[in-house]
Amino acid sequence: MTGAGTHGGKAISSYGKSALLSLFLLLFLLGCAGTRRQWAEVPPNPYNPVFTIAVLPLNNTTNDVGGSQLVRQELQRKLSRRQYSVMDLKDVDRVLRDKMGITLGHQLELTTPQEVGKTLGVDGLVYGYLLNFDDITTGVYNVKQVRAGFKLVETATGRVIWARGLGVKSFVVGGREGAALTAIKELATRDNEIFSTIKGLKDIPGLRDWQTIRVLPTEKIGEAAVLSLGESLVTRALGVHLRAETRVLLNRVIRTMPAGPGAPSLRRKPFLPAEGVCYLCISVSLN
Fold this sequence. Notes:
Layout: E1 6-7, E2 10-11, H1 14-32, E3 52-55, E4 59-60, H2 65-79, E5 85-86, H3 89-100, H4 113-120, E6 124-137, E7 141-154, E8 159-174, H5 175-191, E9 210-218, H6 221-238, H7 243-254, H8 279-286
Parallel strand pairs: 3-5, 3-6, 4-6, 8-9
Antiparallel strand pairs: 1-2, 6-7, 7-8
């Protein structure tokens, strides 16, 4: 006889119930809260010489094409709230394809920021590198992780004026074995990172930093696997797979980015006397 709190004749542990409730709550927030959360605009920085920017195709080192698109779209949305004029992604892709033959992020290494900026007609370029967009389910150790780095380059000089990277993880672990294996894998991840093979990463701090945003423990290994797999299936069906990790990553990275100058009229310009006005005479008369 199967009673309340059982599944398939076997009782689900209290940890499993808690984890399952957390999963449904997470999916509810992702699916129902929507993607149109409003962010307060930061004050403009009139000393920033970069106003018009383009978010370039990401250098995607993962096997997930959709992940690269999600991260780039979320990044575009957040940058529009930081006093920049952001070029539409479709226009960026069309110009790069038609005028430079560039369709993939790694192809940007074959040219310079000055050439790309001139072609797109923007003051700055946002380069992005997606290093992880993973959903690993092993039963004992189940992790969802997103890691990326970004930099803003001034097209007039090729100077990097901002750069930041980060990795974000969430776990579902089964029993004591899961916790122990998690620690081992964390160490292996840090030890095995090789950034020297990817051009441009040396300018981006924080790529070795990982932040954990959620840990769901279960008493049984099987429960951890079921919860992790179930979450993956549901989030993929809703089109929000790894969106929580992506948003946390971008929120924490973008908040370190300097604000743009806002409207062109707010840009800081050198002080020049008005034509035909003698400021020395005015100063003397005021004294």
